[in-house]
From TrEMBL:
It comes from Afipia felis. Keywords: ATP-binding, Biotin, Fatty acid biosynthesis, Fatty acid metabolism, Ligase, Lipid biosynthesis, Lipid metabolism, Magnesium, Metal-binding, Nucleotide-binding. Residues 120-316 form the ATP-grasp domain. GO terms for biological process: fatty acid biosynthetic process; malonyl-CoA biosynthetic process. Gene3D superfamilies: ATP-grasp fold, A domain, ATP-grasp fold, B domain. This is Biotin carboxylase. Pathway: Lipid metabolism; malonyl-CoA biosynthesis; malonyl-CoA from acetyl-CoA: step 1/1. Signal peptide: none annotated.
């Protein structure tokens, strides 16, 4: 096992990793930018190192500074959290070159899955069902039109290097295709330095269903069921739940086994998420994330497996926590991502939290790094915290969620809490009857009634 882990992240995920390390008896090193000197992860870690000015490129993405921090503190492994360097294969290699362990998958797997075109090819080869589309990249003027016609309109232009919904454009008809190709490609080039794009069939009203997997790197792998992340705004997840209200045990078993088998064949190491769109009883692979995800707690709540702790264990060469047969799904869990944003315009609202009262009681969990008096800096994402609620049934979970949402107090900044209070009372949500465009349609209809 590792002796000392450096956590190359901030916010709630840095705290989440810190908690797992403490339970395992591993010493922790927090790193922070000058803007995060008073952050909770810095206060709770055994040691901390300032790695640069506020801009992420100069601090949390600053590889030489992170290596120096490892050197100074004698850390033997790095946990990257999510975002920042978590899916940077080169970073994993550089750590290895310095005799440091990267807590995450093998660099080759991060690289393959980070290129969405390669990821789709790999998925197909491993027997995972994929969205119909171009077999590789397409360029404007090329045979793009012929491929699009073959797939059938509407088609979605997607960036090979995509992430966070950027570099994605829908072409409803033939007339839209060339503009969609160039816009998506330019956006991808600006955001990721790579303008390669590919085509996919645009699905009308699918659900976003993702499978959590955990591999030991030696050919052992298990799946931990699905998460339904269909409630999205601008392709960003807002509300996640597990199990999905619409996936049957038989469907879960079928797709879960396909994913676990693929990971066994790859000898995948660590946690990963295989994302699908689900429509008319069929699963279509869209991408794989080779890191811990924001929404991992809902899976933890229903399986009782600590994903971050197990991620650290397998990175150190340990065994999987159990066999596939021993994975059980108990009850239902829902997560709300509470952002410091105006609940109607979604404009970020950084600033000082003047009052903070987290909700409590049976089945209620808050993963957050804020506290009363904390000043949310304007430089990073606007996640204030995640409210995760568990119940024996989905009905009980929703009942408890409404209560917890009414109890929580976050004052001083605007938050998306009013939106969640409305959603938890919305008949379509209560019925589990929604799809990936539902939330945007709901927001456009102006039905958000603040509670
Ligand atoms: P990113 O890496 O940018 O998050 P994804 O491939 O994961 O991109 O897709 C993000 C979201 O975009 C999905 O959850 C879904 O809402 C939408 N999306 C992706 N592919 C399709 C598709 N073929 N048809 C319809 N919607 C899609």
């Amino acid at each position: 096992m590792f002796d000392k882990i450096l956590i190359a992240n901030r916010g709630e995920i840095a705290l989440r990793v810190l908690r797992a390390c403490k339970e395992l008896g591993i010493a922790t090193v927090a790193v922070h930018s000058t803007a995060d000197a008073n952050a909770m992860h810095v206060r709770l870690a055994d040691e901390s190192v300032c790695i640069g000015p506020p801009a992420a490129k100069d601090s949390y993405l600053n590889i030489p500074a992170l290596l120096a921090a490892c050197e100074i503190t004698g850390a033997d492994a790095v946990h990257p959290g999510y975002g920042f360097l978590s899916e940077n294969a080169r970073f994993a290699e550089i750590l290895a070159e310095h005799d440091l362990d990267f807590i995450g998958p093998k660099a080759e797997h991060i690289r393959t899955m980070g290129d969405k075109i390669e990821a789709k090819k790999t998925a197909k080869r491993l027997g995972i069902p994929v969205v119909p589309g171009s077999d590789g990249g397409v360029s404007p003027g090329d045979d793009a039109m012929a491929i699009a016609k073959k797939i059938g309109f509407p088609v979605l232009v997607k960036a090979a290097a995509g992430g966070g919904g950027r570099g994605m454009k829908v072409a409803q008809t033939e007339a839209d295709l060339m503009l969609a190709l160039s816009t998506a490609s330019n956006e991808a080039k600006a955001a990721f330095g790579d303008g390669s794009v590919y085509l996919e069939k645009y699905l009308g009203k699918p659900r976003h269903i993702e499978i959590q997997i955990l591999g030991d790197g030696r050919g052992g792998a298990i799946h931990l069921g699905e998460r339904d992340c269909s409630l999205q705004r601008r392709h960003q997840k807002v509300w996640e739940e597990s199990p999905s209200p619409i996936i049957s045990p038989a469907a879960r078993h079928r797709i879960g086994e396909i994913c676990a088998n693929a990971m066994r064949e790859m000898k995948y190491l660590g946690v990963g998420t295989i994302e699908f769109l689900y429509e008319d009883g069929e699963f279509y692979f869209i991408e794989m994330n080779t890191r811990i995800q924001v929404e991992h707690p809902v899976t933890e709540m229903i399986t009782g497996i600590d994903l971050v702790l197990e991620q650290i264990r397998v990175a150190a060469g340990g065994d999987l926590p159990c066999t596939q047969n021993d994975v059980t799904i108990n009850g239902h869990a829902i997560e709300c991502r509470i952002n410091a944003e105006n609940p109607v315009t979604f404009r970020p609202s950084p600033g000082k939290i003047t009052q903070f009262h987290p909700p409590g009681g049976l089945g209620v969990r808050i993963d957050s790094a804020v506290y009363q008096g904390y000043v949310i800096p304007p430089y990073y994402d606007s996640l204030v915290g995640k409210l995760i609620v568990h119940g024996k049934t989905r009905g009980e979970c929703l009942m408890r969620l409404r209560r917890a949402l009414d109890e929580i107090v976050i004052d001083g900044v605007e938050t998306t809490l009013p939106l969640f209070r409305a959603l938890a009372r919305e008949p379509s949500i209560i019925d589990g009857d929604y799809h990936i465009h539902w939330l945007e349609q709901y927001l456009a209809s102006g039905d958000t009634k603040p509670h």
